[in-house]
Design goal:
The chain is mostly helical and about 70 residues long. The chain has one domain. The protein has three helices and no strands. Helix 1 runs antiparallel to helix 2 and helix 2 packs antiparallel against helix 3. The chain is elongated.
C-alpha cells in the first residue's frame, strides 16, 4: 500500500479501509485479522471525523494510521 500523504486525494485515503476489508477476507490468522480490523476502524473513524478536523490535523492522523497500516 502506498504511504498516505496530503498530496493523495481523499478518496484514495478512504480506499485504505476497503483494502483492509479485502485483506480480512483473505487471511485466517486471528492476530493479523484483529490488527486489520482495528486499522480499518481507524480509517473509517478518520473519514467520519474529517469535517471536524483542520487540514493539518487530518494529515497528521492519516499519516499515523498509514504508518500502522504499512507495518502490517
Amino acid at each position: 500500500m502506498p504511504e498516505i500523504t496530503p498530496l493523495i486525494p481523499t478518496n484514495i485515503r478512504d480506499a485504505a479501509a476497503a483494502d483492509c476489508e479485502r485483506a480480512l477476507r483473505l487471511t485466517i490468522d486471528p492476530v493479523y485479522r484483529e490488527n486489520l480490523a482495528n486499522i480499518r476502524e481507524f480509517w473509517i473513524s478518520l473519514a467520519n471525523a474529517r469535517p471536524f478536523l483542520s487540514e493539518g490535523d487530518f494529515v497528521k492522523q492519516a499519516e499515523a494510521i498509514g504508518r500502522f497500516h504499512a507495518n502490517l
